[in-house]
């Protein structure tokens, strides 16, 4: 599915996946990312995520931006369904030259994807929100790995890249998951049904972990985020910025700080911004915009500096 939105530089390439063309076409400023990838939090409204895309488009008008929304159904879906949901994103990344095409002849793309020209250089900024965004990034990494595309098509070295982890990763606790799945549900009866679904999922998770010794989604996600080969644009030298708060009721401080500690021990380039109790889940940019966006801009400058 490919359709234009009210903004003629924004193209909906799939369900919940939007491609933003540069507002200022032409040579890309070498200090700007060539692509910004945003993975939204679970059940985030498009209007809420647009607040972030607007900032990036103002800051980097010559940059291509890709926004991926995360619906609760993504978590309930089979791996095959998850891969299918992210297929339009993979098509865009392939068209931009960020991943290798499949070995077999690929079928023709529908307009306007067929008009995308591969970028001559790659500078990638990933902005990931909450466990929902983290899980989608994890699935994307799995898709790329399955395609045997562990390197870029046009780059001969690792590009400038950086990762922002906003309000994540959580530890997958029951109370956190219950809030995450029910926060957008207003119907009382439906809320009860969703809670029952969460209870069933957690029961299955306990059986899989303690009886069959299989790692469940959240522990696997936390582990893969500290894998330098998760996606081909990141490595241990890529700056990663954790943004979290004491006021987040879904992702506790200790869950983020433990992941930060593990990342440091593995040799990752870790930075962090910790907000107070007044800053809620995925609301840190609203709590203190100057501090939030200042930290992200400084981190990107470091990523560019590391490339030189």
From TrEMBL:
InterPro entries: AB_hydrolase_fold (IPR029058), DUF829_TMEM53 (IPR008547)
Cellular component aspect of the GO annotation: nuclear outer membrane
SUPFAM superfamilies in the cross-refs: alpha/beta-Hydrolases (SSF53474)
One Pfam family here: DUF829
Protein name: Indole-diterpene biosynthesis protein PaxU
Keywords: Membrane, Nucleus, Transmembrane, Transmembrane helix
Locations listed in the record: Nucleus outer membrane
PANTHER family: TRANSMEMBRANE PROTEIN 53
The organism of origin for this protein: Agaricus bisporus var. burnettii (strain JB137-S8 / ATCC MYA-4627 / FGSC 10392)
Protein family membership: Belongs to the TMEM53 family.
UniProt membrane topology term: Single-pass membrane protein
């Amino acid at each position: 599915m490919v359709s234009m939105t009210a903004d003629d530089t924004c193209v909906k390439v799939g369900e919940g996946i939007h491609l933003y063309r540069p507002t200022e076409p032409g040579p890309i400023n070498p200090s700007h990312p060539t692509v910004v990838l945003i993975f939204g939090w679970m059940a985030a409204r498009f209007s809420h995520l647009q607040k972030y895309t607007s900032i990036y488009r103002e800051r980097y008008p010559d940059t291509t931006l890709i926004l991926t929304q995360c619906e609760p159904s993504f978590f309930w879906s089979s791996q095959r369904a998850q891969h299918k949901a992210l297929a339009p994103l993979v098509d865009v990344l392939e068209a931009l030259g960020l991943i290798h095409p499949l070995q077999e002849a690929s079928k023709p793309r529908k307009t306007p994807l067929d008009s995308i020209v591969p970028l001559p250089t790659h500078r990638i900024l990933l902005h990931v929100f909450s466990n929902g965004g983290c899980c989608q990034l994890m699935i994307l990494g799995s898709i790329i790995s399955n395609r045997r595309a562990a390197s870029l098509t046009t780059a001969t070295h690792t590009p400038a890249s950086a990762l922002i982890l906003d309000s994540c990763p959580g530890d997958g606790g029951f109370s956190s998951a219950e809030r995450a799945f029910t926060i957008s549900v207003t119907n009382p009866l439906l809320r009860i049904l969703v809670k029952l679904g969460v209870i069933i999922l957690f029961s299955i998770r306990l059986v899989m972990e303690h009886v069959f010794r299989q790692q469940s989604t959240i522990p696997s996600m936390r582990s893969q985020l500290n894998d330098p080969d998760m996606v081909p644009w990141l490595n241990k030298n890529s700056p990663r910025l954790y943004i979290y708060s004491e006021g987040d009721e879904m992702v506790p401080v200790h869950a983020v700080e433990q992941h930060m500690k593990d990342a440091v021990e593995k040799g990752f380039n870790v930075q962090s911004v910790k907000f107070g109790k007044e800053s809620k889940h995925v609301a840190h940019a609203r709590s203190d915009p100057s501090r939030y966006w200042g930290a992200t801009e400084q981190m990107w400058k470091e990523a560019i500096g590391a490339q030189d």
